[in-house]
């Protein structure tokens, strides 16, 4: 049984790059175009990890992380922020909201896959 990862990013091309890397590594992938769409995808199915951008329309990544942490089914789902934001205060804000890792774009797929493998929930 493969593990399911939710990608939340407003860039379709970035979602595609991450999607390809993850499916090649054997993960199942669900995509969302912003935080609100991401929350809509949290519909009770098992999600083993979430990868989210920070800067998105409608609902940004930090607000999305806070909302996920309020959701009883997904409160403990690990979240990796994948973003152009490298400032320490943004990282701290993300960690305080509940993000477990911070990968800065542009990124190497291997670097992201390492973070995913380390954090993905067991079945």
UniProtKB/TrEMBL annotation:
Q: Which residues carry this modification: 4-aspartylphosphate?
A: 53
What are the residue boundaries of the Response regulatory domain, all occurrences included?
A: 4-120
Entry keyword set = Phosphoprotein
Query: What CDD domains does the entry give?
Result: REC_CheY4-like
UniProt cross-references to Pfam families, sorted A to Z:
Response_reg
Q: Where is the signal peptide?
A: none
- InterPro entries assigned to the protein according to its UniProt record, in alphabetical order: Bact_response_regulator (IPR050595), CheY-like_superfamily (IPR011006), Sig_transdc_resp-reg_receiver (IPR001789)
Q: What is this protein called?
A: Response regulator
According to its UniProt entry, this protein's organism is Chitinimonas lacunae
């Amino acid at each position: 049984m493969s593990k399911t990862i939710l990608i939340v990013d407003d860039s379709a091309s970035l979602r595609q790059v991450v999607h390809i890397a993850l499916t090649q590594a054997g993960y199942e992938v669900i995509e969302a175009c912003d935080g609100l769409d991401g929350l809509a995808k949290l519909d009770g199915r098992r999600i083993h990890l979430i990868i989210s951008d920070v800067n998105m329309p409608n609902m940004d990544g930090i607000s999305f992380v806070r909302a996920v942490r309020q959701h009883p089914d997904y409160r403990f789902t690990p979240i990796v922020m994948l973003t152009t934001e490298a400032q320490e205060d943004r990282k701290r804000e993300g960690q305080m909201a509940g993000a477990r890792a911070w990968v800065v774009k542009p990124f190497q797929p291997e670097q992201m896959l390492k973070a995913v493998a380390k954090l993905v929930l067991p079945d």
